[in-house]
Design brief:
The two termini are 23 Å apart. This protein has 181 residues and is of the alpha/beta class. It is globular, with a radius of gyration of 15 Å. The protein is built from 7 helices and 6 strands; from the N terminus they run E-H-H-H-E-H-E-H-E-H-E-H-E. It has one domain: Rossmann fold, CATH 3.40.50.850. The protein binds zinc ion. Zinc ion (ZN) binds next to loops. Zinc ion binds next to loops.
Length: 181
């Protein structure tokens, strides 16, 4: 086990057509890649983590309340993995670490860094949505903590194409990430 796969926010609210904060078709189109890559990492005995937003409805103390409609609210369908990834998660629950997060970055307020260090993992692969929000913020924290970053171009998407392209350039040119295509 020397690599980690982080499958970030690939949930109903962020991906489904009628999700509460959906990135729509660009997100839906990732479904098969998410499934295949998750299974590949599991079969190779690598560390698979699913960091997913968990919010309280209309939390007055949360900064996102002023920015976005309620999404990924605790105990709702919005927090379930989207599409076929849900089946993969159900089947491999014992080998996947589900991680609740409350900020864009999967490192903010979670034990992700501790889990990675305990396993001696330096190489972190990112998949999920949105490229320019939760993927970007997670990538910046990973960079600052000294991890080697791999961003899977076919495994990230956003509702904002321009911001998606900006983030891909930023990963490569500023965070020294390897873009896996
Ligand atoms: Zn959120």
């Amino acid at each position: 086990m020397d690599k980690a796969l982080l499958v970030i926010d690939y949930t109903y609210d962020f991906v489904a057509e009628d999700g509460n904060l959906t990135c729509g078709l660009p997100g839906i189109n990732l479904e098969q890649y998410m499934v295949d890559t998750t299974i590949e990492f599991l079969e190779n005995g690598q560390f698979v983590v699913m960091p997913n937003d968990m919010h309280e409805a209309n939390d007055p103390f949360h900064p996102e309340t002023a920015l976005f409609p309620p999404h990924n609210v605790r105990g709702t369908k919005g927090r379930e993995p989207f599409g076929k990834l849900k089946d993969v998660y159900e089947r491999h629950k014992d080998d996947i670490v589900w991680m609740d997060k409350t900020r864009y970055s999967a490192f903010a307020g979670t034990n992700l860094d501790i889990l990675l260090r305990a396993r001696g993992i330096k190489e972190v692969h990112l998949l999920g949505v949105c490229t320019d929000i939760c993927i970007l913020h997670t990538a910046i924290d990973a960079y600052n903590l000294g991890y080697d970053l791999f961003i899977h171009e076919r495994g990230v998407a956003s509702f904002d194409m321009e911001a998606h392209q900006f983030a891909l350039k930023h990963f490569k040119n500023v965070l020294n990430a390897t873009i896996v295509s």
